[in-house]
From TrEMBL:
InterPro entries registered for this protein in UniProt: FkbM_mtfrase (IPR006342), SAM-dependent_MTase (IPR052514), SAM-dependent_MTases_sf (IPR029063)
Domain Methyltransferase FkbM: 88-251
Species annotation: Candidatus Sungbacteria bacterium RIFCSPHIGHO2_02_FULL_52_23
Protein name (record): Methyltransferase FkbM domain-containing protein
Pfam families: Methyltransf_21 (PF05050)
UniProt-listed NCBIfam families: fkbM_fam (TIGR01444)
Length: 294
């Protein structure tokens, strides 16, 4: 039944009928109703990717539609160029790592940070299946200081682990894992960094603090999740988070979830994103780029 569902979905995608109102919702409902599990390898436009079917995050979209979050894909295609050096922080099983590996080409490089053991194993397999010589996997979280930490797991959305248990929905908490933490500054050293893609469930501030010298020096394009609630749970003031990026010479804009359009924000106005979800738990993607000297 699962393979039949996939074939039906792919046929709809081929004719863009999946864009009709309610079609994707019905397909996803059927996927969840079948309660699939186990690792599989998928063929997508960029190559092969290893996923776990029990994941309720990226996996259903890749299995049914061959892509996840088209607006995010379009932004990465716009900012990641051949020859770039890129950090994928929170690489999960390597979907965006694979995309960025194709975009930077053989002269570029992707450093893929993923601390969680199960996801890291799939990341390694995605790299192997595609022969990605320009990707270095790093089994560590990027943090404000080197050492170890407890990573709290989400048993439903496998790409949703966090260094704060408060950032995991109560009904989805799935234990914890002891992980390694590395500082981006120490890892990169004098290697130039052109872009950062980061989504680490509230630990973005910790990662940036541990990479502040690199960010100040290279002023990389940064594509980050901005989740005030999650940041606060890990000791980062959301306003100061944006202020730091501005102090590095970057201008930040929030990304509209549906259209992908950009809206410039200040440290003060960025906090308004918290209102797009109940109880002030709203979030958005944020794109920060070097301020033009012109």
């Amino acid at each position: 039944m699962l393979i039949l569902l996939q074939k039906i979905s792919h046929a709809l995608v081929a004719h863009r009928l999946d864009r009709m109102r309610g079609v994707r919702r019905v397909l996803l409902f059927c996927f969840y109703a079948l309660r699939p599990s186990g690792e599989v390898t998928l063929d997508i436009a960029e190559g092969k990717v290893r996923i776990d079917l029990k994941d309720r995050g990226q996996a259903p979209y890749l299995f049914l539609f061959g892509a996840y979050d088209e607006s995010e894909i379009e932004i990465l295609r716009a900012i990641v160029r051949p020859g770039m050096s890129v950090a994928d922080i929170g690489a999960n099983f390597g979907y965006f790592t694979l995309l960025m590996s194709r975009l930077v080409g053989p002269e570029g490089h992707v450093y893929a940070f993923e601390p969680e053991s199960h996801a890291y194993g799939m990341l390694q397999e995605t790299i192997r299946l595609n022969g990605l010589a320009n990707v270095t996997p790093v089994k560590a979280a990027a943090g404000s200081r080197a050492g170890s930490a407890r990573l709290f797991l989400d048993r439903k959305n496998l790409g949703n682990p966090s260094l704060s248990e408060k950032n995991i929905p109560t009904t989805a908490r799935g234990g914890a894992e002891e992980i390694e933490v590395a500082m981006l500054d120490a890892y990169m050293g004098q290697k130039k960094l052109d872009a950062i893609k980061i989504d680490v469930q509230g630990a973005e501030g910790l990662a940036f603090w541990g990479g502040r010298e690199t960010i100040m020096r290279d002023k990389p394009v940064i594509f980050t999740e901005f989740w005030p609630y999650g940041l606060r749970n890990l000791g980062t003031d959301p306003k100061e988070f944006v202020q730091f990026l501005e102090s590095a010479g970057l201008r930040c804009a929030l990304v509209h979830a549906q259209s992908g359009s950009l809206k410039d924000v200040t440290p003060e106005t960025a906090l308004g994103i918290a209102r797009n979800r109940p109880r002030g738990m709203g979030w958005a993607n944020m794109l920060c780029r070097k301020v033009s000297s012109a």
